[in-house]
């Protein structure tokens, strides 16, 4: 394993050299939005838009890896485009999110049910403590691009958030991003 400089484009999220990537489209995120009828309509009329893309740089045998998440702007009935949201499988492993461009909200929830919000603006490096669920939400009108750095063993636990939702949602109210209680949250 040798050291290497990796070029990250803070406007497009491109990682050179990258070692893997995936894309999430709106139809794959149906369960996490409030208004699924409107989501189905958007998928139909807009041809299933991309919501976010994740590109990683990972070296076999390393303890750390990093990459970018690039989120498109968009809304479903006023609810901003967001990631699935997850806890890490390893409860002792946190993460770092360093925003490069765009404007977002990082919604965090502890196992005890505390909610925290960290604004994602260019230059803000967010500390995600171990065992806090995290979801990023693009509240701007441009791409939201952030760099994440994580332990390779952290893993993802999507089950909890998928089943119960998060306690808060982020919606556009009169042109302003607003944090509200999730009416569909189930404990
Ligand atoms: C991770 C990071 C990050 C995240 C993406 C997509 O643990 O790998 O938090 O890369 O996975 O931003 O978010 P979801 O994994 O919640 O869809
Ligand atoms: Ni994570």
TrEMBL record:
Q: Which UniProt keywords apply?
A: Gluconeogenesis, Glycolysis, Metal-binding
Q: Which GO terms describe its biological process?
A: gluconeogenesis; glycolytic process
> GO cellular component terms?
cytoplasm
Instruction: Kindly list the residue ranges recorded as spanning the membrane.
Output: none
Name the enzyme group at the top EC level. isomerase
Q: Which residues form a coiled coil?
A: none
Enzyme Commission number(s): 5.3.1.9
PANTHER family membership: CUPIN TYPE-2 DOMAIN-CONTAINING PROTEIN, OXALATE-BINDING PROTEIN
Q: What protein name applies here?
A: glucose-6-phosphate isomerase
């Amino acid at each position: 394993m040798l050291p290497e400089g990796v070029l990250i484009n803070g406007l497009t999220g491109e990682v050179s050299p990258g070692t893997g990537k995936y894309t999430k489209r709106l139809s794959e995120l149906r369960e996490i939005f409030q208004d699924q009828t409107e989501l189905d309509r958007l998928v139909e009329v807009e041809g299933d838009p991309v919501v976010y893309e994740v590109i990683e740089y990972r070296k076999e045998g390393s303890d750390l890896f990093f990459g970018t998440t690039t989120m498109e702007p968009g809304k479903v009935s006023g609810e901003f485009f967001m990631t699935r949201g997850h806890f890490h499988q390893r409860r002792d492993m946190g993460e770092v999110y360093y925003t490069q461009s765009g404007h977002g909200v990082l919604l965090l929830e502890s196992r005890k049910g505390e909610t925290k919000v960290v604004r994602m603006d260019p230059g803000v490096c967010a500390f995600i403590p171990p065992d806090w669920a995290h979801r990023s939400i693009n509240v701007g009108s441009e791409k939201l691009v952030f760099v994440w750095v994580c332990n390779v063993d952290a893993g993802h636990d999507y089950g909890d958030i998928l089943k119960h939702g998060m306690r808060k949602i982020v919606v556009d109210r009169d042109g302003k991003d607003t944090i509200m209680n999730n009416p569909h949250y189930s404990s």
